[in-house]
Amino acid sequence: MKTENSQPVLPGTDHAGTVLAPETEPARAGISPRRPGRGKQVLGVLLAGVLLAGGTAFGTTLPDPKSSDVYRAVSDAKAGAESERESLRTDYDSLKSDYETLQAAIADKEAKVQARESEVGKAEAAVKSAEAAVKKREEAVTAAEKQKAANSVSDGTWTVGKDIAAGTYRATADVGSSCYWGIYETGSNGGNIIENDLPGGGRPSVALSAGQDFKSSRCGTWTRQ
Question: Which of 41, 155, 198, 212 is the least crowded, having the fewest Cβ atoms under 10 Å away?
Fold first, then answer.
């Protein structure tokens, strides 16, 4: 009976709320007492099955991430980056090949230039050698010509020891009938004749000494012997 201001009595407690000890059910013949642990095992199996079924259902209901716009955008960006990388690699390989070809061409041209410079150097050395030989010959010819000129006397009046060297001179060719030569004392202005002649032909010769003047007229060239 429920009275005013009385609290409801819960199963397993008394009116004061004290938990009562469970009554022991008398064992039945042929029936083993119920074990609380077996119920927990069954409950655990059932719970595991529910969780497994729920997890399977949850997994099958999730959307495929590869079908999302973000995934496709990332995949496209990755593919574009890889394509650009391959394109850059191809460009790099092409530039590297061109560079190596250019380097080989430069090396070959440098080798040719060096060989050409070597040939030019040899040619210049040969030219210098030839020029030196020509100059030496010219100097020899000039010296010979000077010596010949010094030993040659043409028409005119010459002072021996000053204009021409002393010595014996002879006409280099046969003279004509108008040839005249004379040897005079130096400073006499032709007044003191030492010797003179009109040979009229042949190749006359004269002996000249220092302190004399020699005059030749229409006799051609005289060469010192």
Answer: 41
Q: Report the Cα 147 to chain-centroid distance in Å.
A: 59
pLDDT in tens, 176-219: 999 999 999 998 988 899 999 999 999 999 999 999 999 999 99
158 in helix, strand or coil?
A: strand
Tell whether 178 and 190 lie within a shared domain.
yes
Task: Report the half-sphere exposure of 2 (CA within 13 A, side-chain side).
Answer: 4
Identify any residues that bridge with 13 across adjacent strands, giving them in sequence order: 19
Q: Residue with structure tokens 């997994």? A: 59
In a domain, 216, yes or no: yes
**Whole-prediction pTM:** 0.41
17-29: pLDDT as tens digits: 555 545 544 444 4
- Alpha-carbon span 198 to 215, nearest angstrom: 12
* Residues 81 and 93 grouped into a single domain: yes
Owning domain of residue 170: 153-224
